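Recap from last week: sequence in, structure out.
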Amino acid sequence: MHDVFFIVGPTATGKSDVAADVARELDAEIVSADAFQIYRGLDLLSAKPDTATLAKVPHHLIGTISISEEMNAEKFRKLALQTISDVHSRWKLAIVVGGSGLYIKALTHGLSVVPPADPDLRARLNELSLADLQKKLRGLDPKTAVDLKNRRRVMRAIEICVLTGNRASEQRQWSGEEMFATTGVFVFRERDDLYQRINQRVDRMFEAGVIEEVRNAGAMSDTASKMIGLREVRELLDGKTSILQCVAAIQQATRRYAKRQLTWFRRQTNFQSLNLSEINHVEAVKRISQLAKTPGVAQGND
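Predicted structure tokens:
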């Protein structure tokens, strides 16, 4: 059996439920690779697995980090490697489950060494508008592939260019050295099925009290504040939108996020695909458990 097995895919696919039963079948432990579920609090908004699912097997890196703390792929990688080492010390298989592509790839391919943020440079960049930052990055790195609407990533790309003297697009972001034998499965659903599940999940969030959850949330880091739905619920609390508009906006934002995840995983991994719209839960658990037991299958690489 592999030491690490990956179950990846877009939000609302049903990864958590399937993974918990696979882990129980294999006497394994789950290591979450979700950029928002790693935070304590906002359980509804971040769609953490429910209590019954968490009770099936040990889960790690869910509700671990203070919501006021910044997170990134490098920090996640360090936490995950230590957690996986702990799981292995108990002679257990670690099943990495999640939909945060950069976190997954930080484990499968490692990270290159890039310069840390420079406080003085960061302060100067913070004074610029997004349009000015975009213009500056284009001048430094015309071939940049950075999402130009993401201020934080644009600033980081500029920092790399300035501090290294090289274009960020020419930096090797990934070390290329596989941290583990990259075995796993990419789970997905047909679009209509997935979108219906997303819409229903958002409805349940509101029924369960997500408005009060956001109302009672304290100060949070920049990365935590990127959680899907946070801005929309805050606008509702400020009286800027109606609850129907808020629900619809979160559903739409989540559908768009799922679409981006699908594209990323199809391009960045070569895990064996499994369409959960075509099989039931029991069959999915059976197939994935078999993959995790069989050497030489479900190989993924860049």
